[in-house]
Amino acid sequence: MKPGRRLIEAGHGMKLTVLVDNSTLIDRYYEGEPGLSLLIEEDGLKILFDCGYSDLFLKNAWKMGLSLDDLDFVLLSHGHMDHTWGLEALTRRLCELRLEGRPCKRPALVAHPEAFTSIALDQCPEIGPLLEPEKLARHYDMRLGKAAQKISERLLFLGEIPRRIGFEQTEGIGFKEGQDTPDRIMDDSALVYRGSEGLVIITGCSHAGICNIVAQAMDLTGESRIADIIGGLHLLSPSRERLEGTVEYLRRIGPETLSPCHCTDLNSKIALAAVTPLREVGVGLEVSYL
């Protein structure tokens, strides 16, 4: 058994397992889809960070021998379908367990309140969540808010991220219900773990901008060391200004490792590799942090 695993089992570290990503690890017989879902285990808690696009996170977890029947938290990074539509499958699963009289927990559901607003994009009338908070409240302990939320002594949900860095400003994606300007996805958030080797920043899509997210994590924790940034960085054919600005920002803060996945294209990964070593991420990855 690895030393890191012993520490985690003793309640002194965090384990992260990738249940859904666009890619799978070589020679691991899981499935991928355009989406993201991570299982986080820390301080005796089981936390699902995003639910992907379908029920694939449940299928992959079953193949890995992992149960999601005893989740303490479900965290949603934002409301887009590739991160929230799997919530319907999880809700069905919890409902079926209760109907059969089998043990399961009632998880807390943490998200920005705007994560549940409908979003239309071009010819698609809905790319936002399928379930409304009023119905979800029958199955989950709803904890919606714009402020940061403490998940454990070392885990913090960042809440609404201030958009302070110029090159990360975007035109928005789609239109939220009741709005006549493109959606800037103010509900986009992230999770930070304060480890012994620095911060581990866990992102869904980084619509707020990964540099903005890192800055907020450092401000809220008072920690400047970055051990890892893992998740989607929303660098899909980014402008030259944005990519160069991101690379320079990350070079300046000096993360020990970068673990980009989901919505990060190959050219961006190549550019980021000039900053620090990159970890290959895909379904089946297990990584531990002290």
Automatic annotation (TrEMBL):
Coiled coil: none annotated. SUPFAM superfamilies: Metallo-hydrolase/oxidoreductase (SSF56281). SMART domains: Lactamase_B (SM00849). InterPro entries: DHPS-like_MBL-fold (IPR041712), Metallo-B-lactamas (IPR001279), Metallo-beta-lactamase_dom (IPR052926), RibonucZ/Hydroxyglut_hydro (IPR036866). Residues 34-262 form the Metallo-beta-lactamase domain. Pfam families: Lactamase_B (PF00753). GO terms for molecular function: transferase activity. PANTHER family: 7,8-DIHYDROPTERIN-6-METHYL-4-(BETA-D-RIBOFURANOSYL)-AMINOBENZENE-5'-PHOSPHATE SYNTHASE (PTHR13754:SF18), METALLO-BETA-LACTAMASE SUPERFAMILY PROTEIN (PTHR13754). This is 7,8-dihydropterin-6-yl-methyl-4-(Beta-D-ribofuranosyl)aminobenzene 5'-phosphate synthase. The lineage of its organism: Bacteria, Pseudomonadati, Thermodesulfobacteriota, Desulfovibrionia, Desulfovibrionales.
